[in-house]
Amino acid sequence: MSDQPITYASAGVDVHAGDRAVELMKESVRRAQRPEVLGGLGGFAGMFDASALQGMRRPVLATSTDGVGTKVAVAQAMDVHDTIGQDLVGMVVDDIVVSGAEPLFMTDYIACGSVVPERIAAIVAGIARGCELAGVALVGGETAEHPGLLDPHEYDVAGAATGVVEHDAVLGPQRVAAGDVVLALASSGLHSNGYSLVRRVVAAAGWGWEREVPELGRTLGEECLEPTRIYTRPLLELVRAAGPDLHVLSHVTGGGLAANLARVLPPGMLATVERTWQLPPIFTLVQELGQVPLADLEQTLNMGVGFVAVVAPAEADRAVALLEENGIQTWPVGTVEVAGEDATGPDVVQGAKGVDGGAVRVVGDYRR
């Protein structure tokens, strides 16, 4: 039996700090709203008026959940917490756009060793900013304090979102045809995948995150904390403009370009992608600093391409122009054809993540 009374606070949980964090985040959350949101911050559940769906012929809900992986370790090491939230939003809502759906609302979850109100508010500010960029409502969230499970400075973030699309407008492998053009949409950097590899390379080299790197034009930590680009609004504009000529989209996340493109192609089809673009400096730096084999690098990082669109040939130029007008560098990288007997071998990726999809072959050399 304890000699002293044991309270929740003595066990390491400060409920007053949690309340303070909520107060600090209110203004950020207020900016990340849509007219359909009912109620305010602090309810047991976020509410969203779905009456607009009554005007749809056959609405299909799409949902996704994700985190940002070990990128949070870089944020913690740098003591910079107001960008990681945008990464979270991008990883979640842009998975929904792959189906052609419009993301509507999102919730977040932050687990931490100790609630530092200013730090939690900074994380949520990043989430709210990402939601603003995506046109998504942040309808709720949860901050959980886990002393003894996480160190006081440690935290992790996760989130989930829901969107909607008309049934006959769902993008998917059934639309893909021989002759389709593969378009690459530039990433803003590493995004939020492969940080276990990047951190291992940096540690092995004995580099610090504060190290100034001339070819990056800033510190290594600043480069690695560059927020994930959010493609939601430009891609939804493309969905509306291209209609049936937009066949599939692919979010280039864990697994790299080839594996994620293979997931959205139908069996029996092969996409040949040419390495015609110049790698952004961070990818070359990781490769050279860690002597990482190219195959391993391409299976881990996005290599400068954050999204892929597969369109009918007649739509390719218009799609490139629309995306460029929205500030996303876009360029054709390949075509789709019926797979022949040669669509096998070590340079071909067939399906991915349990999907019996098509095949992708990446050829050529990156531009120097």
From TrEMBL:
Reaction equations catalysed: 2-formamido-N(1)-(5-O-phospho-beta-D-ribosyl)acetamidine + ATP = 5-amino-1-(5-phospho-beta-D-ribosyl)imidazole + ADP + phosphate + H(+)
Residues in PurM-like N-terminal domain copies: 60-165
Compartments, record wording: Cytoplasm
Known EC number: 6.3.3.1
Record's keyword annotation contains Amino-acid biosynthesis: no
Alphabetical keyword list: ATP-binding, Cytoplasm, Ligase, Nucleotide-binding, Purine biosynthesis
Molecular functions per Gene Ontology: ATP binding; phosphoribosylamine-glycine ligase activity; phosphoribosylformylglycinamidine cyclo-ligase activity
First-listed, main subcellular location of the protein, grouped into a coarse class: cytoplasm
PANTHER family: TRIFUNCTIONAL PURINE BIOSYNTHETIC PROTEIN ADENOSINE-3 (PTHR10520:SF12), TRIFUNCTIONAL PURINE BIOSYNTHETIC PROTEIN ADENOSINE-3-RELATED (PTHR10520)
Protein name in UniProt: Phosphoribosylformylglycinamidine cyclo-ligase
Organism of derivation: Serinicoccus chungangensis
Lineage of origin: Bacteria, Bacillati, Actinomycetota, Actinomycetes, Micrococcales
Gene: purM
